[in-house]
Amino acid sequence: MNTYTSRQRRTFRTRRSIRRNVDNGRMRLHVYRSSRYIYAQIIDDRTGQTLAEANSRTLGASGNKTEQASAVGAAIAERAKAAGVERVVFDRGPFRYHGRIKALADSAREGGLDF
Fold first, then answer.
1. Are 42 and 27 spatial neighbours (Cβ–Cβ below 8 Å)?
2. pLDDT digit string (tens) for 46-68?
3. Which of 21, 86, 92, 114 has the smallest number of Cβ neighbours within 10 A?
4. In this structure, CATH architecture of domain 6-110
5. Per residue in 61-92, is it b (16+ CB within 10 Å) or e — as a string?
6. DSSP readout, 30-88?
């Protein structure tokens, strides 16, 4: 019997589709969206280390949640470039690619990340 929730199955399905690119040496840009904040981090799956992180909680970005997500995207792109990362794989987890997730991704692309 399958004991995973539908959210866990969606997360595993997304990770399974990006595994090949991660195995080829790209870093993973993981995004988590809570009801109030949005978090992004760049993870090196080979070593299990977080290379850069940004979130709307500590940035203190003003505006609505979509504008805050755009600010987080720009911040994560800047911090990733400082860490020497330019090519990433976008890991949206169980979240759909629209709204705040899309705003963060677009802003990170404009900031110079390639995915």
1. yes
2. 899 999 999 999 998 889 999 99
3. 114
4. 2-Layer Sandwich (3.30)
5. beeebeebbbbbbbbbbbbbeeeebeebbbbb
6. EEEE-SS-EEEEEEETTTTEEEEEEEHHHH---SSHHHHHHHHHHHHHHHHHHTT--BE
